[in-house]
Amino acid sequence: MGKAFDNRMVRSRHMLGFTLVELLIVMTIIAILLGILFPVLGASIRRARKTQTDMNYHYGNNGPLAQEIKETPPPP
After folding, report:
1. How far from 44 is each of 34, 35, 50, 56, 61, CA to CA, in Å?
2. Within 13 A of 66's CA, how many CA atoms are on the CB side?
3. Which helix or strand (DSSP H or E) is residue 17 part of?
4. Is the full-model pTM beyond 0.85?
5. Torsions phi, psi of 47, nearest 5?
6. Can you tell me where the transmembrane regions are (predicted)?
7. Engineered SS bond to 18: which of 8, 22, 34, 63, CB 3.0-4.6 Å?
8. CA 40, CA 58: separation in Å to the nearest integer?
């Protein structure tokens, strides 16, 4: 009986790898983190696109005005 117990202890000490439960726990944690991350990234991308559109509109409207001011001679 002592020898069988010793063999199990030696074998369990040298076992490599992860159990199925450990892998499932890690996968669950990763899924939760991704579930939090994707909506935040989506909102950031939408905000960046809106800012870019606003800037394009702003510069698009001011471009002709800047050109007109540049070509107008200074007052005497």
Report:
1. 15, 15, 10, 18, 26
2. 6
3. none
4. no
5. -65, -40
6. 20-41
7. 22
8. 27
